[in-house]
Amino acid sequence: MKVLAFFAILLLAAVAAPQSGRRASEIKVPVPIPPEEPVQPKPTPAIAEEPPPVTAEKNQDYSCTEDGSLARILDPDDIGELVFSAKDVDARATISSKPKPTYTKEARRLGVQGFVVLKVLLSARAKVGRIRVVKGLPAGLTENAIRAACKMEFKPATKAGQPVAQWVTAEYVFRLADSSVFTP
């Protein structure tokens, strides 16, 4: 009986786990592709189109804005306050802070170098009144120089003890540093 039970267990083990060395192949059942539903375009909210950025041009006047963009002044003769030359004031305007402009990626890629010359109207209220481009550079460098000039801090010029407006010339130099070339 023991022998019979032994053979029965051995027979069941042989049937349950064949030792042929081959693995059973996977059965792949094809999955049906769902039918395509028509795609409805999503409604886009009405967005007010922003005006294109202002490109600074020579002999044009610009004013500073709160958001850092440039606003072209269409009437260059309407300054709004009496402006004195450096010769006519008792004390000239003194600039206490002149931030440096940044290089644009495009100007770096193109290797643009040079300088931007601006005439800046320093108002009697200690604010930059307007900026006129005398000499500019391409690739956004003139615009960056104007934005930097808008952040100038100064003490206004005075005449007879009263603050007055005065034009000053501001020059911004743009140079790419080339660390591989050593100059004496």
Please, could you describe this protein's structure?
It contains three helices and nine strands; from the N terminus they run αββββαββαβββ. The protein has 184 residues and is an alpha+beta fold. Strands 1, 2, 3, 5, 6, 8 and 9 form a seven-stranded mixed beta sheet that branches. Strands 4-7 form a two-stranded antiparallel sheet. β1 (61-64) and β2 (70-73) form a beta hairpin. The termini are far apart.
In short:
By secondary structure, the chain is an alpha+beta fold. The protein has a domain at 67-174: TonB (TolA/TonB C-terminal domain, 2-Layer Sandwich), CATH 3.30.2420.
CATH architectural label of the domain at 67-174: 2-Layer Sandwich
The secondary structure category is alpha+beta
- With helices defined by DSSP (H or I, 4 residues minimum), what is the helix count? 3
Question: What is the CATH domain class of the domain at 67-174?
Answer: Alpha Beta
Strand content: 25-35%
Relevant terms:
184 residues; alpha+beta; TolA/TonB C-terminal domain; seven-stranded mixed sheet; two-stranded antiparallel sheet; disordered C terminus
Secondary structure topology:
Layout: H1 2-16, E1 61-64, E2 70-73, E3 83-84, E4 94-97, H2 105-110, E5 114-122, E6 128-135, H3 141-150, E7 153-155, E8 157-159, E9 162-174
Parallel strand pairs: 3-9
Antiparallel strand pairs: 1-2, 1-6, 4-7, 5-6, 5-9, 8-9
